[in-house]
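tokens incoming
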């Protein structure tokens, strides 16, 4: 789920060039002076490539199915990843078009390519069309079931952008559904079975991150102006929801590593025990670190973006990935 950043409905007291909205065509007064390079850079920024990391969830089934060395499976995973990146970028562009009026009077978001006029609104609409065409072409390279899930993902995002993001708690549920769809789509694209543990863990983790983001938003200044749904959130309920989903995500992962089927699947041919359960400490550390970021970095624009810039969080994530690959694929130094 794209989950666009909250938008202020009113300008600050400081005068700015965005105090008066640009022309109805969405272009700034000096649009003719925008160079081709600046426009291309603006188009890339609008696509939010830094957010594509979320789409790595589509390759998660491949990792735990021990198929990272299968070239055919990898090709399907790459195609699925690319399709979801294009769909996500189309949604981000659509969000910027929907919110352009509010963004033009926001002290920071007015500088985004579409509100500032670097990317004219007609060009932004053409971008959406082009990205959807690329997504359709990519979907044709993988099984039809993948295309059905990808289409459902896009429809859900459109509904979220226009309506559902203003419904408290349901908005977070939509975000979590988007992550589950990524995992399911990855399984369909690579013909890999997705375990119920992976679906449950993904859903719990996505809910935890979504509730954490809302907790961070309602604790910031002018929270009621950022998102209509925030006025209907209860900090006490959010705290309980965060605690429950954070615990559920870690517990589900631990249960998966200790499951008899999992242990048998990852056991080596010589019968040696699999030690995947030892990696459970990393999800726990990640959950606790995210909670700490919410509590200590209240001025950050987004806690989910902040965690990707946080060195301890990223080191814990990288070590977990390395350990999982080493244990699952039984890599040994030569």
């Amino acid at each position: 789920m794209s989950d666009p950043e909250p938008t202020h409905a009113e300008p600050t007291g400081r005068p700015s060039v965005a105090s008066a909205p640009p022309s109805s065509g969405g272009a700034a007064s000096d649009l003719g002076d925008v160079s081709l390079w600046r426009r291309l850079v603006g188009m890339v920024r609008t696509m939010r490539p830094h957010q594509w990391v979320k789409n790595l969830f589509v390759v998660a089934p491949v990792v735990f199915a021990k198929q990272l060395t299968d070239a055919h499976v990898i090709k399907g995973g790459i195609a699925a990843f690319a399709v979801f990146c294009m769909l996500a970028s189309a949604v981000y562009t659509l969000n910027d078009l929907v919110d352009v009026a509010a963004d033009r009077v926001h002290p920071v978001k007015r500088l985004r390519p579409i509100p500032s006029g670097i990317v004219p609104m007609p060009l932004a609409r053409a971008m959406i069309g082009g990205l959807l065409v690329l997504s359709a072409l990519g979907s044709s390279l993988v099984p039809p079931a993948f295309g059905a899930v990808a289409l459902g993902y896009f429809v859900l995002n459109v509904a979220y952008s226009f309506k559902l993001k203003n419904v408290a708690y349901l908005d977070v549920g939509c975000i979590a559904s988007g992550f589950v769809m990524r995992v399911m789509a990855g399984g369909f694209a690579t013909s890999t079975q997705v375990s119920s543990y992976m679906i449950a863990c993904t859903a719990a983790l996505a809910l935890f991150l979504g509730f954490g983001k809302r907790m961070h938003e309602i604790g910031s200044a002018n929270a009621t102006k950022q998102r209509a749904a925030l006025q209907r959130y209860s900090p006490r309920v959010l705290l309980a929801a965060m605690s429950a989903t954070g615990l559920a995500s870690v517990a589900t992962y631990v249960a998966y590593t200790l499951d008899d089927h999992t242990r048998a699947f990852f056991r080596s041919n010589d019968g040696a025990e699999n030690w995947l359960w030892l990696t459970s400490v990393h999800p726990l550390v990640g959950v606790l670190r995210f909670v700490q970021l919410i509590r200590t970095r209240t001025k950050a624009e987004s806690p989910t973006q902040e965690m990707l810039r946080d060195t301890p969080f990223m080191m814990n994530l990288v070590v977990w990935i390395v350990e999982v690959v080493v244990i699952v694929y039984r890599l040994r130094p030569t």
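note: The two ends are 42 Å apart (CA to CA).
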